[in-house]
Amino acid sequence: MFLLINTSEKDKINLALFDDKTVEHRIYSGRNRELLACIHDLFNNFPPKKGGQGGVGVGGIMVVVGSGSFTSTRVACVVANTFGYVLKIPLLAISKEQAQYPQKLISELLKQPRGQYISATYSGEANIGHKK
Q: What are the 10-residue block averages of pLDDT along the chain, 132 residues in total?
């Protein structure tokens, strides 16, 4: 299974677990600081395989970059990079449009070297501590 993290919409966390045949989408209401709790919920409530328990193994992660808030994009990349490092799995930064069909990108994801981090691409300049 592969994980898609999409935090491009304000106060929504879009996650998907997918393989080449199925996609399980979940949309959580919440702020970016709740991303890990949402991933935990997704993994623990994923339908178990026949005769098995719930939970899932992740073979790679895709993250939507270039859309959404600076902080949400940054948090999603840090979480993905941490999982990538610990699990030694490939990561792929994708656009919001590409997130609609993540299965088409599985081969591209699997080409990515393990241990290589993704960088956040932002939709605008960061507005940290600036008053306008």
A: 94 94 91 91 74 67 89 92 94 94 95 89 62 56
